[in-house]
Design brief:
Elements (H helix, E strand, L loop, with lengths): L4 E3 L6 E3 L3 H12 L5 H98 L1
Antiparallel strand pairs: 1-2
Amino acid sequence: MLKTTVSQEDDDAQVSCSNLTACLLAFISLQHVPTSISDADQDGSEQEEARFLLEVTRAQRLVHSIEQELAKAKLKENIALGELYKFRAEEAEQRLEIVEFELGCMHNSMRNSTVALDDEPSDRKRRRTSLSSVF
């Protein structure tokens, strides 16, 4: 790596260069001295514009950072909501199983008592008919 130092007589600025092209460009930029008031104004306005662009870039970085935090918070919220909905679904499934079991018990109970009620009259009828046939 080539390291070169270029100095300017006016302000003794030093530039460290990594290659020959960069050194030449740095030397040319250091040699550019404003020749009139309009050049100085233009340099000042360019610096001011650069400051504004830097402020805009910093603000955009901050917005991007906040957007990332918001996305992470939304992800956490969605995960928590997913867990809540899963919990509620499991509870509802357990309640459904309990209700289905109780309903099945009631159905069996009703069927058994209906069969017993139906059997009794038919047994009586059979007894009566069997007794009446004997006499």
